[in-house]
Amino acid sequence: WSRGLGDVYKRQEEHEWVQLSDDIATVGITNHAQESLGDIVFVDLPTLGKQVKAKEELCVIESVKAASDIYAPIDGEIMEVNNSLESDAAIINQDAENTGWIFKMKVSNPSQYDELMTEDDYKIFLEQ
Asked: What angle do CA 105, 115, 29 make, to 5 degrees?
């Protein structure tokens, strides 16, 4: 199972995006989520090496308006975090779905990736 970098799937409830390359998933919040949160001021990054299950709370993102939990989109292990967010959390506001990624994880259950919404499905969800 392998997905190219162009395949971006979105989660319905938590407004996170997932990009899968081989068995590594890059995860962040959607542009819609960052717009709803407003100016992001802090990201509590997840712990490296942590084993997580889908929908498990991993970390918190804080804005001037609110704090929001970030969840694991699929089962796996946290392999990397975006350390640049520690000094400049506003990167998420500037480029949420690219350089504003939050963490990368080694996927342990690839079939869960196929269950996530496509970008088109996510747009329809937002319109409802």
From this structure: 50
Residue by residue, pLDDT tens for the chain (128 residues) are 233 334 444 444 568 889 988 899 999 998 988 999 999 999 999 999 999 999 899 999 999 988 999 999 999 999 999 999 999 999 999 999 999 999 999 999 888 888 888 878 778 888 88
The CA-to-CA distance between both ends of the chain, in Å, stands at 32
Identify the H or E element spanning 21: strand 16-21
Cβ(56)–Cβ(77) below 8 Å: no
User: Containing H/E element for 121?
Assistant: helix 119-127
Supply the pTM of this predicted model: 0.87
CA 45 – CA 58 distance, rounded (Å)? 8
Q: Write out the two tokens for 50.
A: 């942590």
How big is the chain, counted in residues? 128
